[in-house]
Write the structure tokens for this entry.
Amino acid sequence: MKIKFYAHACFRLEHNGLSLITDPYTPSIAQFEPVGETCDIVVMSSAMDRFHSDALQVPGDPQVVDAMTVSPYGTMVRGIRIQSIPNRENKPEQSADNAMYYLTLGGVRILHMGDAGWPPESDYVNYLTDRVDVLFALAGGLPTIPLPDLHRFIAAIRPRLVIPMHYYHPRGVLNILPVTDFTSHYPAEVVTWHKQSTLEVTPKSLAESMQIVVLEQSR
């Protein structure tokens, strides 16, 4: 499976000719360049937040999945089962529903944290434990999940690979934490600064113990 990091919480996942884009942002609001690439499926963690839900900026005619409308048992989309894990933003003045989502592509089990503001309920944590190969982790702190809660969540589910997302970037407009606030919690030997926006992952390429790979933002 090929992974490409566009910006914020937006990635491209591709395997055997099937492509999926996660949480596309509105370029004029987020101030990141447009995705500009077609795909087969767009998954968004809500339909309301323009930092996570602008499927219209993805060219072509992809099938759009709002994770908020998907049950925890999942729905099949182009042969991929997408499961939803309900959550809320961590904004006391304007808290809104959103969802994490879980899927398997190319034999790799993926959890995207969407715009979650809190750890999921314990039943979901128990379900995810040792079942996540790649975690797209919200690394910028509030108004998404606070970093201490995120570290505890990661320790509980034990993903094999963590790819940080949703952190400060000088091209963006959000006053959130830099990725180094997240990575500094872990030993230097488990953190790789990849220097590229793309990464190829297979079940065999994943290390047994957790690794963190920081991708370069391409937009």
